[in-house]
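Q: I have 70 residues here and want to know how they pack in 3D. Can you give me a structure?
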Amino acid sequence: MKNLGIVLLALGIIMTIFTGFTFVTKKKVVDLGPVEVNKEEKTPIYWSPITGGILMAAGVIILVVSKRKI
């Protein structure tokens, strides 16, 4: 249970600092023998910093509850 709290806390901090990322995919548009034309598409993925705050709070709550049981 303690490990889950630490993971949620770390993930929440990361999600609060970095509110998204972009990944690039390559698609083959034309293939004419030795000539190839490729296209790069950038796909952004965003989330709210509130999501990171909720995960941080959940991690802290789990850590506090797990310490009380021991």
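Q: Anything worth noting?
A: Residues 49-69 form the longest helix (21 residues). The chain has a mean pLDDT of 91.
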